[in-house]
Structure formats: C-alpha cells, structure tokens
Design the sequence.
C-alpha cells in the first residue's frame, strides 16, 4: 500500500489572543490552501474539486494534520490516460503545491515561476498526456491569499510535507490587473437593483441581485454621507437605484481574470414593485 503524504500546518498563537480571532485567521489560511489546491487541479478542468480534511489536532500550538480528498472529478474520462485517476491527481496536486509553496522561501519571481513549476510537474506526471491548461491567474490569486492570510500570527506559519518544512515567510500580493497584456472593459447599467445585504456602515460592499448575487462597492460619496447621517430608510425587498459599473479584466488568453462591481450616481432607495429594472448598457472604450 502506498504511504500517505502527511501535511502538518503549524500555527503559533499569541498570549491573550482572542480564540475567535485566532481561529478566524486559521480558517482563512486553510481556505487559501484549498483555493490553491483547486487552482492547481483546474489545469485539467474546472470539474475537478478537492478539499483539505483535518485528520488530527495537537495540543499546545495549533498543529493541524490534513489530507487531500477529491470530492469531484470525471474518473472514467481520466482513466483513458492513467490506471488510477485518483492517485495520479493527488500525486500531481501534492507535487505541484509543494513546488509552489517553496516560492515563499525563495527569491524567485512568483508570477513567472509559478506556471513554470506546474508545467514541469505536469511533464513529470502520467497525466501529461491528458489535455491541460494551467490557470495562472487563479494560482497566483491563491498564493497571494495564503501570503496575506499568513500575517498576524505570532510566528510565520509552517507546513510540513512528509519531512520537509516550508515556512510561509514571503510577502506576495497579486492583482490580475497587474498582468501583462490585460485589457480592461467597462460597462454601465442604469436601473434599480434588489438589495440582498446592505452595508449600513458605508465602508464595505453591498450584495445586490442582478442575474445573480454580486458584491458592489458604492462610490457615490454624497449618498454615503446621507446613509451615515441616518437619512436613508431601508426595508425588506427594497431596491437601490443608480448606475451599476462593471470593470472586467481580460487576459491575453481571452480569459476573464477578474470582475469588479461599483454603484455610482445613486438616485435613492425604491420600495418593492415600484419600478422596473431597465438595462441600459454602454461600453466604455479603454
């Protein structure tokens, strides 16, 4: 039987630190690791998903032992290329993730080396005959998230993979906007949008409904002032009327790297069933 690869995440907590705050940071970091794992596996299609499952917790500093569990993949399709699809995918995931996490201890350029690492890992895998496309943007976003969520702990988090200890000590921030050749496309839509989740403080994002639930940042500073001055009344099912501005960032491979939503020129709050949402879309050339 093949020996299972052990992953042990070591986190130090500070004296008198809030338990809720510590575990919130821990959850965010583990989510970042999950994001990286799924970004790696998406090289072979978006229909492959995995999750890190905690198998053991130790006393003292938090030592969380976890393993990878594939929760979604097309076994029959991949079996045409490898005898054991599950084993091949997990082996590729562990090797690719190990190589990527090593970048946190190196001085290599993360943006250029991350896709190279996955390319080399695939070429050394029996999966190399399977059609693949490395999702560079998603991988870099996940690495950035792990780096950012590693801040705030007493000591830099470490991940032990078998006998190798990798310290997450390097600061790495990534935005798809910074990628070479990215094109920005801007669209404007006037209408009244159902409010699913407001931000009554006026500092974070609202959730509104269009064809789906989206998070938007309100940029109308004058309207934000009226909100903070308690001049805005909200009720269940209300809509917010204004201009929805969408910024889409398109890569050279014609992939949507990121989408940002903003609400501008707020007209006001509209009670339910008082107005129809009429899309008036204008594209702004950049």
Sequence:
């Amino acid at each position: 039987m093949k020996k299972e690869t052990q992953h042990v995440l070591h986190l130090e907590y500070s004296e008198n630190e809030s338990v809720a705050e510590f575990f919130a940071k821990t959850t965010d970091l583990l989510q970042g690791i999950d994001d990286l794992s799924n970004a790696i596996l998406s090289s072979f299609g978006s229909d492959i998903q995995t999750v890190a499952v905690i198998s053991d917790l130790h006393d003292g500093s938090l030592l969380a032992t976890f393993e990878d569990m594939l929760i979604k993949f097309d076994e029959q399709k991949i079996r045409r290329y490898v005898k054991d699809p599950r084993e091949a995918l997990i082996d590729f995931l562990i090797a690719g993730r190990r190589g990527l996490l090593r970048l946190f201890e190196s001085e290599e350029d993360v943006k250029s080396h991350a896709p190279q690492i996955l390319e080399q890992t695939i070429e050394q895998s029996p999966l190399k005959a399977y059609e693949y496309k490395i999702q560079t943007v998603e991988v870099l976003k996940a690495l950035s998230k792990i780096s950012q969520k590693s801040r705030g702990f007493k000591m830099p988090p470490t991940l032990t993979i078998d006998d190798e200890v990798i310290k997450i000590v390097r600061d790495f921030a990534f935005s798809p906007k910074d990628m070479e050749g990215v094109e920005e496309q801007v669209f404007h839509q006037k209408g009244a949008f159902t409010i699913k989740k407001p931000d009554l403080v006026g500092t974070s994002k609202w959730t509104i409904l269009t064809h789906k639930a989206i998070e938007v940042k309100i940029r109308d500073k004058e309207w934000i002032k009226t909100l903070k001055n308690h001049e805005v009344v909200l009720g269940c099912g209300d809509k917010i009327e204004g201009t929805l501005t969408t910024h889409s960032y398109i890569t050279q491979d014609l992939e949507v790297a990121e989408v940002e939503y903003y609400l501008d020129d707020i007209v006001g709050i509209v009670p339910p069933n008082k107005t129809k949402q009429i899309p008036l879309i204008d594209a702004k050339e950049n």
Notes: The CA atoms of residues 115 and 136 lie 6 Å apart. The helical segments are 19-41, 75-78, 85-101, 110-123, 136-149, 221-228. Residues 178-284 form one domain. The chain is about 30% helix and 30% strand.
